[in-house]
Amino acid sequence: MSAAGDLPAWAALSTAFLVLVGAAVTLIGSLGLLRLGTFYARVHAPTLGTTLGMACILAGSALFFSALQARPVVHEILIAVFVTLTTPVTLMLLVRAALYRDRTEGSREVPAAESVSDLPPPG
Amino acid sequence: MNGILPYPLLSLALLLLWLLLNQSVSPGHLVLGSVLAVLASWAMAALRPEKPRIRRPGAALRLLGMVLADILRSNLAVGRIIVRSREPGVNAGFMTIPLDLRNRHGLAVLAIIITSTPGTIWVNYDAARGTLLLHVLDLVDETVWIRTIKGRYERLLMEIFE
Amino acid sequence: MSAPVILEWAVGIAQILLGLAMCCAAFRVVAGPRAQDRILGLDTLYATAMLMLVTFGIRVGSTLYFEAALVIGLLGFVSTVALAKFLMRGEVIE
Question: Domain count of chain C?
Answer without folding.
Answer: 1
